[in-house]
Amino acid sequence: MEAKLLNQSRSPMTTALRRIHKRGCSPILAVLVRPAENIAGITELILKPAESKTFEVAQKTSVHNDNWFDRMAINHLSQSLQAATGLKSRKSGYESLVEAAAMMSKKFNPNRQQELVIQALHSAIPNIILNMIKTLLPQSQFTREYFAAFTTVFFAWLVGPSEVRESELKGRREKNVVHVKKCRFLEQSNCVGTCINLCKMPCQAFIKDSLGMPVNMVPNFDDMSCEMIFGQDPPASNDDPALKQPCYKLCNN
Length: 253
Hints:
By secondary structure, the chain is α+β, with helices and mostly antiparallel strands. It has eleven helices and four strands.
């Protein structure tokens, strides 16, 4: 270390500092408090918290680049939900859908929330289309796998990216499961009750009653993922683990 300091004392920087000192200015730019071999360690200690904080924020916030079809579908569902409830959102895009859901959860009890969502879904999708799907696609392995594939392609705007997975149904392996990697609706609403009463319960009832397809929606509130298992009836309310889940500490509602 002494050799390094000796070399620095002969450098142009040192000469410039001496000239500044002669003019009455303080030449102190930094204070050396540890040997040079520990400087890397000091830098690491300073940078680690910043890196961890950035990573944490990136994990919490998903970015969705909605195209024209996504925006049209979001607006259509949001308007249907607002019309069914009589509530109006001043926001646009996906935020309007989340705000409408938040207002519903505060104004109506859970049973009424589920009824209104089903009413909004019937308003958003014409009955002629629902009846045609129910008639042309009776429950079968093909229909279950078709529903799963269709959901991953056409409902990413609502729930976020998803993929088809296999499960065993009646002793056979089928590609009848939609695995939502991180549910957009749950992430943005940040409320367990909103997920249960405005998504899981009404959608399970709507899909079975209107399309003839039983489906069990299994949210994971730890990582905000979800699985939709087509062809499987959901457990009774008293036995459904999702309905026993406490809300988040930082619940938005």
